[in-house]
Amino acid sequence: MPRIMAESFAKEYLRADEVIGSELVISRFGFATGFVKGNIIDSCISIRVAKLFVDEKPGLGLGRVASSFLSLCKEQLQPPFMTEQNQQDHQLVRPLPVIFHDGRLVKRPTPPTALLIILWMPIGIVLAAVRILVGIMLPMWAKPYLSKMLGGKVIVKGKPPPPASSGNSGVLFVCTHRTLMDPVVLSTVLRRKIPAVTYSLSRLSEILSPIPTVRLTRIRDVDAEQIKRELAKGDLVVCPEGTTCREPFLLRFSALFAELTDQIVPVAMNYRVGFFHATTARGCKALDPVFFFMNPRPVYEVTFLSQLPAEATCSSGKSPHDVANYVQRILAATLGI
Question: Has keyword Transit peptide (predicted)?
Fold first, then answer.
């Protein structure tokens, strides 16, 4: 693997001091060509390893049988490396935990799987377009029925609270943030349009959104006043993680929501898909719903938890951070993560 592709990962997570690998050919315009320098890559790497260890040989080498740099090492280990005896003898450094949060593919792209995905893509694009158009045009009460006809499924657990009565402050639904679709699915389940506060939603997603969105500024005082105004009008949805996360853990919750109301209803959101993830760390966020709806049978799970009792909110003297951490713990326990 070219050094430039592995160096930052090896140094940050594997705690490497030096990284030696093949070098890419760079054009005179400063672009990587994709070609690798040197005719015999393995011998080039061996020469560079020998230059790094001039005075003495490396103590231990791990590599394939064909790796010529292993001959420079005092001791050689070939697969399998991680036997209990190896770990005891060499005290191998345990790497830091790594979270992979990129890429659209749900399954490993083996040749049969890759072929199936390629054949499905044209159908999936048309299906996604139909689902999105139907979602925009239909009223909230009709969407659950049409979603079943178009292959989707929503599983609801728990009992949602009734709509806020006139003159009373609305309920704040605190959701996990698995995809951009979370507030939309919540509104579909409740059969009414509930505004959602957002941080970095794309303009295209705002235009296509079938529910009202309230863009926040990340300025704490300004955002607090905005959320209070929306709660005075009725119910509101907030995702305190701040960004989507598809991995089996929750990102740290912002505590701002806990300061603004005592009527907090936690909602655990999760989804299951077959081909494409609905969220990714990079790329165009506006495509997230498109990829979600391209799946043959997307499934969403919505679990309503009980409204927080007064003694679990800031009105009982608890700090906003304690309330936010408590909500995060019960949501994680509900999802089993």
Answer: no
